[in-house]
Amino acid sequence: MATADAEFEQSTDTVRSADGTTIAYLTVGAGPAVIVVPGALSVARGYARFAAALSGRGFTLHTIERRGRGESGPQGPEYRITEDCADIRAVRDKTGAGLIVGHSYGGLVALEAARDNPDIRKLALYEPGVSIAGSVPSEWMPAYAKYLEQGKPFDAFVEFVRAMGPENVRRIPRWMFRRMMPMFMKAPERDLVVGQLAENLREHREVVRLNDTYPNYAAVTAEVLLMDGDKDRRPHTDADHDQLAKTLPHCERRTLTGLDHFGIDKQAPELVARFIGEFFSRS
Question: What is the pLDDT of residue 10?
Fold first, then answer.
């Protein structure tokens, strides 16, 4: 039976995906159903403020606990993004959701799920993890994998952040970054990150594998809101999003001043929810 999350009155339910894997999701609100697909190194409860804000605008939010997290089943070593797409389908079949929000890697999952799928009517993407012309690097992966095998999760995480983070972070020497980690990442967040490092590697391998497959998204029939922040941007961001917007048949763009990659879940979820709510409410 569903269990309550007292702070935001979310409830937890589960479905069985196509391969039999249990997929949990958190629900809050009343109104048209929306599926939220979290990014890498994230869990469903991390989007509680966003879910509360968007549900307050007259929607029912179903935030998926993606594979390898919480009460959902494991990814497994042969993980592919198609499994996440099947998980979305299972939740959609149970809830009737025709609206999807995807963040970062969750945005890539949402795009893949929306290809040739008229049941998905609208798609709101916040900085989706799409790689175009090698814009998502892979050079960090061998060292990252080696550190995981050696039982050195913090060293693995340093490799990831120095490769994927903003320019000011990438300039920090490894030894200094390693020493600073306990100061800016407290125990709850640190434990969450460490617990997902293997999943993070599998997911970014999928991003790299799908590099330059963006022409496939011409088959997305949904109306799309493509969002990003203007803070801590990488040089390729505008070019990638321009290309993606040109490829999607029904796409509008919005850049939010002062927000970074985590605007939707950590920085200003209420603001992001306002724009997404307006987009979803338009007929």
Answer: 92
pLDDT per residue as tens digits for the range 247-282: 999 999 999 999 999 999 999 999 999 999 999 999
Q: Which two tokens stand for residue 21?
A: 């894997």
Contact 147, 156 (CB under 8 A): yes
pTM of the predicted model, to two decimals?
0.92
Q: Where are the alpha helices (DSSP H) in 24-125?
A: 48-55, 81-95, 105-114
Q: From CA 227, how far away is CA 15, in angstroms rounded? A: 29
Residues 54 and 21 in one domain: yes
Residue-wise pLDDT tens digits, 155-177: 899 899 888 876 666 667 776 77
Q: How many CB atoms lie within 10 A of CB 281?
A: 13
Q: Which residues contact 183 (CB under 8 A, 6 or more apart)?
A: none
pLDDT for 102-122, tens place per residue?
Answer: 999 999 999 999 998 999 999
Residue type, 84: D
> Amino acid identity, residue 99?
L
Query: 88 is in which domain, residue-wise?
Result: 3-134+212-281
Measured CA to CA, the distance from residue 201 to residue 269 in angstroms comes to 26
Closest CA to 28 of 2, 1, 276, 119: 2
C-alpha 269, offset from chain centre: 14
**CATH, residue 70:** 3.40.50.1820
Helix then strand then coil, % of the chain, to nearest 5: 45, 20, 35
Q: First CA to last CA across the chain, in angstroms?
A: 35
Name residue 252's beta-bridge partners: 225
Q: Are residues 273 and 231 in the same domain?
A: yes
DSSP count for the chain of H helices, then E strands: 11, 9
